Amino acid sequence: MSMKASCTKTFLMSISLLTMVLFLTVYPIGGLAVAFGSSAYQAPVSEDFSGLSWSEAFERLHGKFSREYAFTDWKRINWPVLYANFKPRIDRAQASKDFTAYYLALKEYVHSIPDGHVRMTAIRDIDYKYIGGGFGFSATKLSNGKVIASWVDEISEAYAQGMRPGAELIEWNGQPIDEVLDGVVTVFGPNSATAEDTVNQRVCYLTRAPINTQLSVAFSINGERARATVVAFDDNGLSLSKIYPIAVVPDGLRELILNVDNPRNPPQSMVEKKVLDGNIGYIKIWGELDIDLKSEGKTPSTLGLFRAALTEFNKAKLKGLIVDIRNNVGGFDSMAADMLASFYQEEVLYEYVKYFNPNTGSWEYYRNVDPAGKKPIKPGLYIRPVEPFFGGPVIALINSKCVSTCEGLAMGIRNLPRGETVGFYGTNGSFGMAGDEALMPGGLKIGWPFGQSLDKYRQVQLDSREGVGGVAPSIRTSMTEAAAMRVAKGEDVELEHAIAIINSLAR
Q: Which of 112-140 are b and which e, b meaning 16 or more Cβ less than 10 Å from the residue's Cβ?
């Protein structure tokens, strides 16, 4: 619902994403007035605690966060325990005037909430001390549970000492690799909502360490065991760029929004289309919002581009359609529902919404109100069929960076009679209404969701609980040794898998 930002293109990108400016507040309304019960609705406002002491600011932050966070009950967040664990750390940092200790305590506090919509500004200079170094190789956990070196720099010490792509990592400084993974710190990346993404984040940061950290790693190649001793060096985040998804799916749109210098492969349009070999349609959707990507003073309609592509594809009589929403930043729920409308022939509920209303201090259901006040309007956001209609097989390519409104698109396609979701991994598992935030001392900003998306039974949908959430692949692409090494080379294994599925359905 809103927008959000696994491992990033480079170290700099991994840091930048933590600012999470992508979490703009967007509302699932389609030109209707908004009201909650008998009172007018107002979104929770950002509060500025930056002028307070660190201890006072944390006290105020905790009060607001625990009161307005949308999923306390759903995720079983124990706020008193969090307060008891972190308030003393903040107080000690205050007493010693240790900004780094204050910053790290806040970061760990924020990462205690398993929600991709919970975010905190990053300070690169501090983060760099902890994850600024690489060892000359990247790691990937395969579907069979093995952890391998999926990429090895040919000029690295690891390569010189015999490590090659495909080598199974066995021990890390004398400890079994699985035990080491369980202890990898991931607070320098975005919050993970699912257990699957947590594992991937740990694998991602396994090969990051402070510069000059020495590592003894045992590995196996073709049954032969070997060992390498390497030292972490400043690689400008190279190891991060060789693993999924960034090795295959660029984060160009996020980089543009975040004003990253020289963004890699920025999109030329919010919707990119082409006809693949075999007469298969392909649509890449970067987000459910309108953006002037070319700074021309004109903002093309993302929905218009999407519908134009479908119209063109219908004329070509394609055998099927692939909708690529990997690394999609999210946006407006109303736009997602309008996109899905071209795949449905009957009206279907997209969501009900429940918000924290600061006017009443209570949680209330969103209801549509007729601006003229002449007729009642049923609550909820609906998928209402429109032209052009596409009735062929539809596959949504998904991953853990398909977040927020993107997950609604994935859900809608998965629910089609001829719809499938395909990918190595499921979506992010963060579908709440983002936009609540607080400003903290030191230029830090912390934000979180203040609303829930609900299904037809008025139960929370897609947001994770106990590590499970989002939209899983209905047909999963297996992360084999060969696939991991192909990904490191930038080859799109998931897309190939989706094409094969469409071809099989067309036989």
A: bbbbbbbbbbbbeeebbebbbbbbbbbbb
The domain tally of the chain equals: 2
Domain of residue 200, CATH code: 2.30.42.10
| Angle (nearest 5°) at CA 31 between 30 and 33 | 110
Do residues 207 and 301 share a domain? no
Domain hosting residue 179, numbered range = 131-242
Structure confidence at residue 266 as a pLDDT band (50, 70, 90):
confident
Residue 148 lies in a domain: yes
pLDDT tens digits, one per residue of 134-145: 999 999 999 999
Looking at the structure, tell me whether residues 311 and 221 fall in a common domain: no
In the DSSP assignment, the letter for residue 343 is: G
Q: What percent of the chain has pLDDT over 70?
A: 89
Give this prediction's pTM: 0.90
Residues in CB range of 194: below 8 A, 6 or more apart: 114, 400, 426, 428, 429, 464, 467, 468, 469, 470
* Residues in a beta bridge with 446: 120, 438
Is residue 17 included in any domain, yes or no?
no
Helix axes 405-414, 333-340, angle to 10 degrees: 20
- Residue 92 and residue 98: Cα distance in Å, rounded? 8
DSSP string, 202-241: HHHHHTEE-TT-EEEEEEEETTEEEEEEEE-EE-TTGGGG
Give pLDDT tens digits for 190-221: 999 999 999 999 999 999 999 999 999 999 99
CA distance 121 to 337: 31
- For position 464, which CATH number holds? 3.90.226.10
The arithmetic mean of pLDDT across residues 78-89, rounded, is 98
8 Å CB contact between 227 and 452: no
Helix axes 493-506, 481-488, angle to 10 degrees: 120
**CA–CA separation, 269 vs 293, rounded Å?**
7
Alpha helices by DSSP H, 358-466: 405-414
